[in-house]
Amino acid sequence: MRAGAYSPNHIGNDTAIFNAAVEQLRKRGCEVKVYSEDQFNSSEIEAPIILNMCREQASIAKLQALEDEGRLVINSGYGIENCTRERMTRILLGNKIPYPESLIVNTNENVIDDLREVGFKSCWIKRGDFHAMHKEDVSYCRHPEEAQEVLHEYFYRGIKRAVINRHLVGDLIKFYGVSGQPFFFWFYPFDEGHSKYGYEAVNGKSRGLHFELDELKQMCQKASDILDVKIYGGDCIVDPDGTMRIIDFNDWPSFAPCRMEAAPYIAKCVLASIKEWRKKK
Fold first, then answer.
1. Residue 245, beta-bridge partner list
2. In the chain, N or C terminus with fewer CB closer than 10 Å?
3. pLDDT above 60 for 197
4. DSSP state for residue 239 in the 8-state scheme
């Protein structure tokens, strides 16, 4: 399970989707032993297959070690690490997945001139080294001078690296998916009052801008494959011309608005992965 510190404002939802997936696996004949993240880190794990929502650095390192031993790990510890902001930005841009223009910086840098040079007016600053744990790990800035102040606040908080994304104007969409499965769910989070930190208000109420759903599904599946994250969610912006860009991609989010619909497909994804894994052994 996921440690509560890594489920800001979503502890109950994260627990619920994990338990729902476990129940679906048990219904399909699997024997499942559940650990808290602390128990996982302090225990000798013998199971050949590990399904997890881990986020702690020690947990990720342990998952990667078990994967290197030949265990099947879903989501992969390497995939979870790929969803930390700096790595995700480099991977998505490097593989030409639509994503905002970005600067990756040290938090003790002076960036006002750089932001002006690339034409960033409003922007988002996000901690680059790890997953967001607090509201202050993601910051909306209205102009370069404010961005400079926020960046230095990150430095004083001990965060050494940050990603600065250009702010995109358009409809904000939240999505959930399961790799290789027909399940895909999307909605407008601001319109539905769904929020973790309240930042959905920056883009505000959706205008119902047209976009191609199949294109969004394909873009998300490609990101899932490249980042090595089978159970995923995230956010994208739809521009007025219908262009879509992913602005966030997460390893195993809460699936809060579609939990019961998603859980059977998570189980099917796990079973399909087990089948493929056994073929290779």
1. 237
2. C
3. no
4. -
Interatomic CA distance for residues 56 and 48, integer angstroms = 21
Q: What number of other Cβ atoms are within 10 A of residue 127's Cβ? A: 24
Token readout for 70 is: 């030949």
Each residue of 182-193: pLDDT tens digit?
Answer: 999 999 988 876
Q: Among 171, 201, 176, 167, which residue's Cα sits nearest to residue 188?
A: 171
CB 96 within 8 Å of CB 171: no
Q: Which long-range contacts (CB under 8 A, 24 or more apart) does 144-147 make?
A: 144/111, 144/112, 144/115, 144/116, 144/120, 145/112, 147/111, 147/112, 147/115, 147/120, 147/123
What residue type is assigned to position 123 of the chain?
C
Cβ pair 74, 223 in contact under 8 A: no
Element (H, E) at 263: helix 259-280
Read off the pLDDT of each residue in 83-102 and give the average, rounded to a whole number. 96
pLDDT(260) > 90 = yes
Tell me the C-alpha distance between 243 and 124, whole Å.
Answer: 19
List Cβ neighbours of 280 (8 Å cut-off, separation of 6 or more): none
Q: How many CB atoms lie within 10 A of CB 207?
A: 12
The angle at the Cα of 133, spanning 127 to 135, to the nearest 5 degrees, equals 80
Nearest to 81 by CA among 107, 51, 54: 54
Task: Give the β-pairing of 49-51 and 72-74.
Answer: parallel
Between CA 144 and CA 260 the distance in angstroms is 43
Q: How far is CA 69 from CA 32, 47, 48, in A?
A: 20, 12, 10
